[in-house]
């Protein structure tokens, strides 16, 4: 079964727009879990435009499912934040400063030595590590020798191409997943997954352990309500 981790970045975006505490991020995380989500994902960025570093400490106190912190490990502040909170999983994303959203995976060949070192830091602290990668077989194979437990397949290209033809859109992801299985890596996925494209992805990617979904899910909740929406996403994964 593929697990759903709800990314609550966009709840923080809405909260921050007025400076108060509405919507209450901690309450939303608790409610997502109550509605069936099997994980909570946050992606604090250096400018704290949505998740603030302090939010992570508050969330750590109340999340009872899997807590997944995503971000750029080249920022020492991010490394310190993760080590101080010891989530179940850290997902390492090679963002550059000021990026609108994540837009590429790691070059696991060029960054092999760096990844080995930083992954060891988190693993020594007992934190499961996943690294964000494009659906490219060579990148997946080289991920295996970094010491990471899992990869997160960056699904923007799949989501973008899905309306033009789902078979072609998913083909590189199936190859990447098969390569991951061969080298013993767990498989997560995320970015731009939504109610249209999720079911086909989950049905066709072997051993997909987890999806993290934020932007579309929170947008859908405006129409369907958060409880219904979480359950609609969960139904795509059975
Ligand atoms: C790694 C990934 O795909 C997501 O974490 C995504 O980057 C969400 O971040 P934003 O909410 O800042 O767009
Ligand atoms: N790791 C992907 C994630 O957490 C959410 O991405 P998106 O659904 O906001 O595009």
From TrEMBL:
It is found in: Cytoplasm. This is Pyridoxine 5'-phosphate synthase. Keywords: Cytoplasm, Pyridoxine biosynthesis, Transferase. It catalyses: 3-amino-2-oxopropyl phosphate + 1-deoxy-D-xylulose 5-phosphate = pyridoxine 5'-phosphate + phosphate + 2 H2O + H(+). CDD domains: PNPsynthase. The active site is at 43 (proton acceptor), 70 (proton acceptor), 191 (proton donor). Homooctamer; tetramer of dimers. The lineage of its organism: Bacteria, Pseudomonadati, Bacteroidota, Sphingobacteriia, Sphingobacteriales. GO terms for cellular component: cytosol. One of its GO terms (molecular function) is pyridoxine 5'-phosphate synthase activity. SUPFAM superfamilies: Pyridoxine 5'-phosphate synthase. Pathway: Cofactor biosynthesis; pyridoxine 5'-phosphate biosynthesis; pyridoxine 5'-phosphate from D-erythrose 4-phosphate: step 5/5. Catalyzes the complicated ring closure reaction between the two acyclic compounds 1-deoxy-D-xylulose-5-phosphate (DXP) and 3-amino-2-oxopropyl phosphate (1-amino-acetone-3-phosphate or AAP) to form pyridoxine 5'-phosphate (PNP) and inorganic phosphate. The record marks 152 as: Transition state stabilizer. 1-deoxy-D-xylulose 5-phosphate binds at residues 45, 50, 101. Its EC number is 2.6.99.2. GO terms for biological process: pyridoxine biosynthetic process. 3-amino-2-oxopropyl phosphate binds at residues 7, 18, 192, 214-215.
